[in-house]
Amino acid sequence: MALLLKSDSVIEALTPSLIERCAKFKARGITPKMQVFLVGENPASLVYVRNKKRLCEKIGAICEVTQLPESVTASSFEKQIVQSSLDSKIHGMFVQLPLPKHLHEVPIDYLIPPIKDVDGFHAQNIFGVFSGLPNNSYLCPCTPKGTMTLLAHYKISLAGKKVLIVGRSKIVGRPLALLMLTHDATVTMAHSKTPHLHELSKNSDIVVAAIGRGEMLDQTYFRNTQDQVVIDVGMNKRADGKLVGDVKFDAVVGMVHAITPVPGGIGPMTVVSLIDNLLIATELQCLKEGVKI
Ligand SMILES: NC(=O)c1ccc[n+]([C@@H]2O[C@H](COP(=O)([O-])OP(=O)(O)OC[C@H]3O[C@@H](n4cnc5c(N)ncnc54)[C@H](OP(=O)(O)O)[C@@H]3O)[C@@H](O)[C@H]2O)c1
């Protein structure tokens, strides 16, 4: 049986320092505040926002959710984002995705200033990933950041390791590849046009699945030598309603050294990274205004 790389022990270990960092701001009269924009009633989005708000409040920060109807116009949506971006009491902001089609043209990645962009999607923050800047100097995209934190917690070193990342999205695969490269891994990126995926996966020390296809990576993708590490980023609803990853967990768990469960693996790590980003954002804004914490 593989080592289960669960997020709960990581979050338990990290929470006291998040609370302490938040308290330092509060002692100076500054309460870190997150502004969330939620459009419509997508059930998964409602759950994600609730989880983010819960952790935010647990560490002592404020989380305000602006819930907008599905029918909100692009101009009204844009105006509200700009208003929050100018509000000095708001330190971090994000828009819960997905958005309805008519809002796809709203350039949220640019309307949210990089210093408040807790999702880490702004070009300036992507540049931070690209350049391998220190963690506390920019807002790193949350899922890749959470993956790195989880690996560090379980002392899984990347130096010299062969890593395969399946999935090249802008929010997961690509930034994660750069972070792992910065940590001296030899990274291979795969996508829907990549041939010989089985062979690539079997030849890797660490396999990251960020595909969005429920249980696609089954036992035929792993080498059964109990030495591979599997990071499953996927979150998919199976036909029977069960939440599953991109890896067929039950078939693979006996073949590898370590694996993240779904749920309880990368998902909560994304949330904790968002909260960490809120505190970094608050600190960067204090620095900019010359407030010493
Ligand atoms: N746990 C979390 O917090 C969290 C956060 C974000 C996302 N997710 C989950 O992670 C998964 C990926 O999300 P995403 O936003 O990165 O997805 P995405 O933007 O849809 O990207 C999926 C990637 O998978 C590749 N792909 C699709 N089918 C493939 C196949 N048969 N073989 C190899 N590669 C294939 C695509 O290749 P092409 O580029 O060639 O199309 C693409 O690069 C989803 O299940 C999502 O729900 C979880």
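^ NAP complex. The chain has a mean pLDDT of 97. The pocket of NAP is lined by residues 143, 166-169, 171-173, 190-194, 210-213, 233-236, 266-267, 270 (CB under 6 Å).
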